[in-house]
């Protein structure tokens, strides 16, 4: 089964960001996303608001951009539109990796056949998807580059997850995980770590098998943590939890953009891209989901280990020249700010430990959406 990859001439950028609609009094999720979109869409025809898996979720989708600041600015416009529109309807906008106390049994799924089929097939696990993430698309010039770059990106899975991890609470309890979203999402049969395909032909053969066996007929696509998006000619990186604010989102997008372009340039220079054994990748994913920025991660095929915070600091230095070229130097530097302030999971956990009330954590994350703004 041939899959037509729509090649991108430049390393273009697109972002998808999932946000929840909540009741400002109870702080619980409410299924009013479609109502909100219908309310504001006529006023903002230049913005793209997408209906999502759950009726409490709006996805902001940018157009195709060449720089992080421009893409993030489009998201800023979308957040401002959603915030004002929700206030007019007596609702509010909030986002994080997961909601800390909402009951998934009371949150309806959007009326779409693909979504209904996912629930029908996955039952209990599929019903629990009160989770939100960030998807970053980066344009790739040729399909033969896609899997070498994806396999290299997987060596930095814990870096992208630890700085975004923001889902410690679930069903009213502290799970002990920095990103419970990561653990929940991988329960779906088409989600989780991608296989380390060695070529585009192997990917096409896999897609043929999935189609023949009926997997993609039922679910629409594979929902890997990193995957090719052939329709757009991009690699889609889906590792990160949804951040509660645009400031941190811009740092994560800058790191993602730089990493993909960095590995693309290595191919240009004829250099070998890094890989880790699949079992090391899986272990790093778990460590970042469990410990966040306190994770000790595996950094080589020889099983050497380092603290992810050390890795992140050095990674920012390494990517600095490329970030200047891609016009995201200032955004990349914000990773240092996250390391100093603590990622979203740590901030939410501190509030819950002090007050015993997850609603206070929801209040704090809601405030961040308005207060921690993009730097330009």
TrEMBL record:
**Is ATP-binding one of the keywords?**
yes
Entry EC no(s) = 6.3.2.2
In the record, biological process GO terms are: modified amino acid biosynthetic process
| Cited InterPro entries | GCL_type2/YbdK_subfam, GCS2, Gln_synth/guanido_kin_cat_dom, YbdK
Q: Name one Pfam family in it.
A: GCS2
Catalytic activity reads:
L-cysteine + L-glutamate + ATP = gamma-L-glutamyl-L-cysteine + ADP + phosphate + H(+)
Recorded GO MF terms: ATP binding; glutamate-cysteine ligase activity
- Keywords of this protein's UniProt record, alphabetized? ATP-binding, Ligase, Nucleotide-binding
What is the role of the protein in this entry? ATP-dependent carboxylate-amine ligase which exhibits weak glutamate--cysteine ligase activity.
Return the similarity comment: Belongs to the glutamate--cysteine ligase type 2 family. YbdK subfamily.
HAMAP family on file? Glu_cys_ligase_2 (MF_01609)
Query: Could you tell me what this protein is called?
Result: Putative glutamate--cysteine ligase 2
Instruction: State the organism of origin.
Output: Corynebacterium tapiri
């Amino acid at each position: 089964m041939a899959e037509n990859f729509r090649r991108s001439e430049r390393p273009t950028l697109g972002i998808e960001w999932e946000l929840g609609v909540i009741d400002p009094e109870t702080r619980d999720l409410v299924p009013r996303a479609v109502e909100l979109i219908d309310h504001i869409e006529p006023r903002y025809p230049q913005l793209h608001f997408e209906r999502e898996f759950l009726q409490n979720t709006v996805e902001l989708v940018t157009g195709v951009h060449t720089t992080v600041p421009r893409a993030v600015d489009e998201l800023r416009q979308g957040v401002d539109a959603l915030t004002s529109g929700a206030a007019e309807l007596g609702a509010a906008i909030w986002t994080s990796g997961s909601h800390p106390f909402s009951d998934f049994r009371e949150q309806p799924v959007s009326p779409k056949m693909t979504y209904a089929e996912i629930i029908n097939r996955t039952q209990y696990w599929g019903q629990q998807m009160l989770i939100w993430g960030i998807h970053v698309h980066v344009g790739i010039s040729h399909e033969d580059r896609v899997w070498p770059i994806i396999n290299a990106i997987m060596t930095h899975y814990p870096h992208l997850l630890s700085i975004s991890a923001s889902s410690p609470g679930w069903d009213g309890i502290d799970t002990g995980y920095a990103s419970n979203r990561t653990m929940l999402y991988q329960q779906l049969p088409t989600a989780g770590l991608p296989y380390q395909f060695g070529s585009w032909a192997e990917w096409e053969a896999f897609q043929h098998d999935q189609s023949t066996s009926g997997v993609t007929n039922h679910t629409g696509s594979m929902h890997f943590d990193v995957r090719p998006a052939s329709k757009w000619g991009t690699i889609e990186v889906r590792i990160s939890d949804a951040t509660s604010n645009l400031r941190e989102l811009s740092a994560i997008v800058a790191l993602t953009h730089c990493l993909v372009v960095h590995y693309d340039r290595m191919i240009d220079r004829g250099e070998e891209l890094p890989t880790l054994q699949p079992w090391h990748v899986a272990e790093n994913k778990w460590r970042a989901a469990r410990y966040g920025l306190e994770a000790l991660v595996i950094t080589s095929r020889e099983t050497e280990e380092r603290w992810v915070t050390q890795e992140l600091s050095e990674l920012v230095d390494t990517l600095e020249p490329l970030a200047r070229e891609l016009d995201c130097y200032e955004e990349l530097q914000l990773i240092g700010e996250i390391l100093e302030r603590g990622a979203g999971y740590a901030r939410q956990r501190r509030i819950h430990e002090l007050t015993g009330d997850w609603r206070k954590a929801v209040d704090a994350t809601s405030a961040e959406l308005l207060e921690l703004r993009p730097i330009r």
